[in-house]
Amino acid sequence: KGEFLSPEEGKAVIAMAEEGVETAAWDEIGSYEERTYLDEHIQAIMDLEFIDRDRIAQRDFRVLVDGINSIGGVAIPAMLRALGVRDEQIIRVNCEPTGHFAHVAEPLPENLVDTIAAVKDSGADLGIVVDPDADRLALIQDGGVYLSEELTQVVAADFMWRFRPGPFATNLSSSRAVEDVAARYGNAVHRSAVGEINVVKKMQEVGAVLGGEGNGGVILPDLHHGRDALVGTAMILQHLANEQASLSEVRADLPTYHIVKQKTEIGSLNPDALLARMADRYASEKISTIDGVKIDFEEGWVHMRKSNTEPIIRVYSEADSEDRARELGRRFMTELTA
After folding, report:
1. What is the reported pLDDT for 65?
2. Residue 35 has what pLDDT?
3. Cα dihedral sign, 24-28-31-37
């Protein structure tokens, strides 16, 4: 199905391994065949009811692609060509699939300084940046301004809801901007525990027309239940073509929030007890305990999750300014261990 294993499925696999299974030597494993499915996948995207190649081609987009010297450097230009973007209008940066990453893999602004500058200097309409396996999509606006990867799924949802109503699913730590946009169309947003498989399970549960994560992940169940930068790219270009707008103009129509990610050391303290205490203390607020403790306030939210590998609690917070978000997080970091 192309989905990650759920925690329960993962435990079942581990249990099978621990029980002992019959194995084969390296030279007795049988035969295999190699095949690429890129063309089939691109065609499946082109066959989507909302993709109009001619309308995209009419915009004659100039697009810079940063493929981090991995598969995205091959797949994204191929997707763009299928969408009607002329090859001479595709500016390739780090698109040789050598596997030697040109910069830190996460498509965050601090890792994309040169790429952001290249979008500005080249006069590109937008920049497309992916991670090494091309499931996360980050966007750079015309003029060389990084569009928060938190907004990739929001732009995709804004596009989708213009012609197909229905619920959306994302995780607890993603921006509330998607709820603001959903309210314009009268659609519901459902939240899951952090992790792609948890978002997928929530999508299947509620019949979501689209889902994603705030790390640039877009999940379209029409294709498959997995993050996919290729379909995300197609949806973004189609949205710009339909609206006859630039990416910066689309951004200007979206809510502005800031997420700050912090963590606090807890030493030998029991993280579950600390989180339970916070849940009790704020029980009168809008609260979720499906993955740590998330508390939604009118002015923002805070999400506290224990680490399974370190004696820390991660504290993510969002507000309408970076300073307010940071202060909200610090407040709860103090309260956790007070």
Report:
1. 98
2. 86
3. positive
Cα separation of 321 and 69, whole Å?
A: 35
Which amino acid makes up residue 284?
A: S
* Contact assessment for residue 161 and residue 182, using Cβ atoms and an 8 Å cutoff: yes
Query: Residue 61 CB: number of other CB atoms within 10 A?
Result: 20
Please name which of 277, 181, 205 lies closest in space to residue 190, comparing C-alpha atoms: 205
From the list 255, 72, 79, the residue with the least C-alpha distance to 157 is: 255
pTM for the model stands at 0.92
Question: What does DSSP say about strands 217-219 and 286-288: parallel, antiparallel, or unpaired?
Answer: unpaired
Q: Which of 152, 189, 184 shows the shortest CA–CA distance to 288?
A: 189
Residue 327 pLDDT more than 70?
yes
Comparing CA positions, the residue from 247, 218, 246 lying closest to residue 139 is 247
**C-alpha Rg value of the chain to the nearest Å:** 21
Residue 106: CB partners within 8 Å, gap ≥ 6?
131
Structural element, H or E, at residue 82: helix 72-82
DSSP annotation string for 254-289? S---EEEEEEEE-TTS-HHHHHHHHHHHTTTSEEE-
Instruction: Using alpha carbons, select from 313, 312, 322 the residue that is nearest to residue 279.
Output: 313
Q: Which domains are seen in the chain, by residue range? A: 38-147+236-252 (3.40.120.10), 258-337 (3.30.310.50)
Question: What pLDDT is attached to residue 51?
Answer: 98
Encoded tokens for 162? 């213009």
E strand segments, the chain = 63-66, 90-93, 126-130, 137-141, 145-147, 168-171, 189-192, 210-213, 217-219, 258-265, 286-288, 293-297, 300-306, 312-319
Measured CA to CA, the distance from residue 92 to residue 37 in angstroms comes to 22
User: Does residue 1 surpass a pLDDT of 70?
Assistant: no
Work out the average pLDDT over 313-325. 97
- State the Cα–Cα distance between residues 157 and 180, nearest whole angstrom: 11
